[in-house]
Each structure stands twice: as C-alpha cells, then as structure tokens.
Prior knowledge:
CATH architecture of the largest domain: 3-Layer(aba) Sandwich
CATH superfamily of the largest domain: P-loop containing nucleotide triphosphate hydrolases
Oligomer: single chain
Shape: globular
Low-confidence stretches: none
Strand order of the largest sheet: 14-15-13-16-17-12-1-18
Number of domains: 4
Amino acid sequence: MQINLLPVYSKLAKSDEISSELSVALPPGTQLSQHQVDTYQKLINRDVDVVINTAMTGDGKSLAAYLPTLTHPRRHAFAMYPTIELSRDQQRQFENYTSNFGKTIRSEALWGARLGELASERSAKRRGEILKERFDNCQVILTNPDIFNLVMNYRYGSNIFSDQELPYTLATNFDDLIFDEFHIFSMPQIVAAITAMLFFLEYMQGNAPRFLFSSATPDPTLLQMMNRAGIKFHEVRGTYSSAGGDDLRHILHPSSLTLHKLHEDEITEIWLQKNIDIIIKHWQQASRKPKGAIILNSVVAARRIARMLADRLRPFAIKIGEVTGLVDSQQRHTAMREADLIIGTSTIDVGIDFNISLLIFETLDAGSFLQRLGRLGRVRYKEEPFDRYEAHALFSNRTPWIYDRFVQRLYEQGIGEGDAIDRPETLRNVVIEQDVFLQATAFQAYAKRWGILQAAHVIATLEGRKREQGFETTAKALRERYRAMFDLRDFGKAMGRYYCLVNKKQESAILDEVLLFRGSSPFQTAVWDDTVTPSAFIGYDTLALVQNIDFRVIDEGAYKAALAGQSDTTKKEALEELRWTIKDKEEQPLVLKILQFFSEREQLVLGWEGVRLRDYTRQVVVLKGWMINEPRISRDLDRLNQFLRRQSLVCYCTAKDASELRRSLKLPPHFPLYRVQQPGKLYTVAFGKAALLLEAEMLRFRGKDEEDEAIFC
C-alpha cells in the first residue's frame, strides 16, 4: 500500500513572545519555533524541575536544548547522547551554533576511550580526576549517560578527592542536564536517571540543575515515577501544519511511503534482490544525484546486503557504504561522506544527520518506525531539495498481522491507496495510539526488584560512617522520596537486599550489574575483520558473532602488528577495545579474526560444565563454566571456550523454552535469550542486565511479590 505524506511546517514564535535577552543573542534573521522558545523559558525559570521536549525529529530540539547556554555566558550544559557517534556529531553541531551566535564556548566530547587517552597523556591519572578537570574547565560537556551514571554511583575512584566530589562538582558546575533521544531507553535507564535526579533535587534544593529530556514520546512510566516522587515536570510539544504560512517554518518535505508485507519465503535480502529496480529507478529519474539509506535490524544481514548491492549496483555507478557496529568510526565517516547508498542499522537510526531522498527500512516497533521515517525529507538550511522523497517500510513475514493492522487502521481513518496523510497527527496516531505494533513489556517489575537497589546504593553511600558530615538530612529525605517513587511499602527491605549483595564477594557482581546504566558486555571481544578493505578493528559481542562467522583466535601481538599501517585514530580505538575484552587465565585478551561470513546464520547452543543446571533455575546467580556447543564450524572453537569457561557471569536460567518466554512475557524482539543444552534437557538463559530484567518479569508472571521475594532461594 502506498500513501503520500504531506509536508510539515512548525509554528514560529511571535517576536513579542521572545524575551529580550534571547532576542538580542539570536543571530540576525534567526526564527525560532514556538517549542524552542517554550523550552528555553522553562529551563531558565525555576518553576519546574524537568522539561520534556517532544517536538518532531528535525524540528530543532538540539538548538532548543542549548539556547540557555548560547544566551547566558555563565550557563553550563552537560549533554548525554546514546551513542559515541551522536555525541561527536552534536559537538560539531554545537560548534556551528557557537559560530552562528558569535560565541566562544569551551566544549568537549567525552567517552570511555577518550578518557583513557587523556589519562595516559597525564601520567596515568585516574579517570575520575580527568573528569573533574573537565567538569571544572568546560562550559559544555557532550558525553553518554553511562559516564553520568558511573559518576552518580561513585564508580570513578580517585587518590585525591572523596566519592562525593564528582557528583557534587557535576551538580554545581552545570545548570542544564540534557538527556537526548531518551525514548530509546527502557526501565533500567529510567530508574538510573530519576534516582540521580532526586539526589540533585534533594541535596541542592532550589539550586539543583534543570533536566531536559528530548524524546519522541515521553515514557508513561517515567511520568508516573516523577509524579510519585514529587518531581515537577512540563511537556513541551511542537505545533504543526501541513500548509505553509508566514508564521510557520518548513521542516519536512512531502514524500511517498509504501508499506510492504514480505511473503512467506522472503527475507529482506531476497526482497531487495527482487525489488532492486526501486533503487535503480530512483537514481535514473533524478535530475541531480540522489542519496539513500537502507536501515536494517541485523548487523550481519546489513553486511551481506551491502556486499550484494555493491555488486548489483556497480553498473549503475551507485556507490555503497556500510554504517554498522562492524565498521570502525573512520570507515563510517568515509561512508557517510562518499557513499550514495548507505546500508546501516540503529547506528544510523539515532542521530547521525544526513540528507537522503530514498529510505528503505525494517522496523521493530512504533518508536523505531517513526524514528527511521524521520530520517527522510528534512528541510536543510541553504540546501537544494531533492526532486522527490520516497520511503519503503518492510514488514516481516513472521508478523504479517502488523502490516494488516496498519492498513486497517489507515482505512479506519479514511486513508486509502494513494491518499495523502499528515505526519504529526494522523500518522503518529495510527502508529502509536492504534496498537499497530505489538506492545512489548515495559519491565516495570524490574524497578521494585532491582532498580531500587540503585537508590539503596546512594543512601548507603550517604549514610556510610566514613563519609564527611552533612549528608544525614539528605539521606533521610531521600529514603522517603525513593520509597514514594518506587511505590514501596517499606524502603528498609530494599536496603536489606542491597546489603545482602554488597557483603558477599561473588554476589557483588550482581550489584555491579544493577549499577551499570546499560549493563556490561559479558562476552566482549576485540575483532579484526579481514573480510573488508581496509581491515576493520572493532569491539563486539562474541555470541552474536560466532553464529555468523568462521574465525581464528589470535594473540594480542598479532592484533597489534596488524594495526601498524592504520591511522592514529584507528590504532587508539582498536587498542582501547583490548581493555574491555574477556581474558584467559594468563590475562590475554580475546581477539577474533574474521575469516568469512556465513551465507546464513547458524544455530547457537550453549553448554555448561556443571552437573545440574536445574539447581540454579528461578534465581539470579553468578556462574562459571559456560561454553559454546554449536556451531562447531571454526577449528578454534575449543580455544574460544577456554576464554568463556573462566568468566563469572550474572545469569538467570529457566527450563522454559525461549519462544514460550517471548510470547508469554511479551519480550522485545531482540531480547537476548540463549539455548543451553545439558544431557536430556534444554534450558534458556539470559546474562547480565537481561538476567535481572527476566527474573523480575518471571516473578510477576508467577504471581510473586517482587518487593518481598528473597533474592536467593
């Protein structure tokens, strides 16, 4: 089915609604949308704690976030982005803002590898000390929420200052804390953000920073938890029209959208082979050179499709580029700059800003559908538009009812084949409000079961006997606000569970997992991909790779030798990956060299060297002895298993089948579950943060109280 998306115009703010200090600071000729002015006013005023900007993708939410900093010379911003690429991209964008506004503002993008680089440059200073230097000397920090979360959970040590110093410095130095693209996160990240927020609000009272969430749709759970905790928030929405006018700014071009239901025997790769004429015709009919993107759910499928299309489209002079987790940062930048058609995954999805006229995309849920579609048709300042814009949304043959329901909901709105539809209201309403996509669980049970331990950790640190005085009153008030936020009967039970974990050496790994923002990568490996030119050097998840590749386990020396001819940036990033890989008994990092990609994914089956896995079901435990039983194609599998066996992993095991779990618990499509084979029995296991999420959902499914149930059986 094909429909036509109408153009989108955003309502401009009236000149008399723009404050004098903002009006004077604006570059000549700048027009602000109403939502940008509203966001600025709410951040400057102190009548709310949190501002949530839900304006459309492409409508200037980033500028809205930085307007206070660009207007007031003493205002500082701490901005968090879900990917390194996005933080780098936004730093470049912020530098454009400062140039346009005629400002000199010191900003810096920080991520793990960059912190390591700075520490080595400064005589091996600890990372906490590097962060404090930056907090004290930069007006704008662009980083990721993982670093913020580590700061707020006292995870950066120092030989110079106390645990409280970094959170205190962050809170006192920065006026605005910005969470960008927050809608892509789920319950553990919501809990982490609000837990930190409450600490700031209670400890600093009326001087706490303002918090800004830029999000396509505010999560209902986020709003509920803030309400219960007494956090004052305000939602800023954009106002849109499909017709232009003097009081409107053009933000999205009209485009066509075709919905495709894949047949029973089709995967996206086969569909693209059959429908490659869509791409060819788009290029042949254009008066100027187009640019396109294909956004997929699978990284390995993206690699196969990129190679297939490079072959098929070479006669038409259409250059293919790949932007996925299997490509290092320099190759991504080259692809974005030079390729005509970019094949990618969620790396494109979140934040990389580029101009395309053709979009083909798979989708998982309502959020990703709107996010990916939002890549197409953006009106760009002083840039000539393309002749036409077209999108093709692909719906899996495994869930054909999603396509059928989408078409039915359009018909119910009076939208038929070839009809026009507005994006901001009607299309958004059909996609989000009309239950077109299956609603996966929100993992609400996690909050009371495990998320509360993050709050308990804050309280325990504040109440610790060795801490400096002055936090007792804050800790007492926070106990009550955390109890209300999590809707608990008794906060003391959460403290009991916390101390149960913190006082046991092995079980402290479970608490470590709770305190991480996105969880750890228990199977991380450094990867030397020799199947591309130039070779790529990245970090990746071992279990995701071995289903799709033939590999060799190589030593650290060979890996470093292969880096000899690479750029300094590639070398630094590749060497940083060694820091995070799993290690063998000699502390050698795991490095996999990819020899080839399989044409189809092999079945992955794990094993465990213990005797009775059933003795460890229905509880979160820390176990060693995991290995890969299948696939056994690589001759180096036994060597790889030597690394895997020695890892102590947070896990949750159940005798239930993975498919049954996904169906009964409404788990998201890519929730990481693995099959485990023991003599005569199959189990399902989840690791790391996923283990905590699954255990909490299983408790609720069995009718147990996640607040009262003991952690250990």
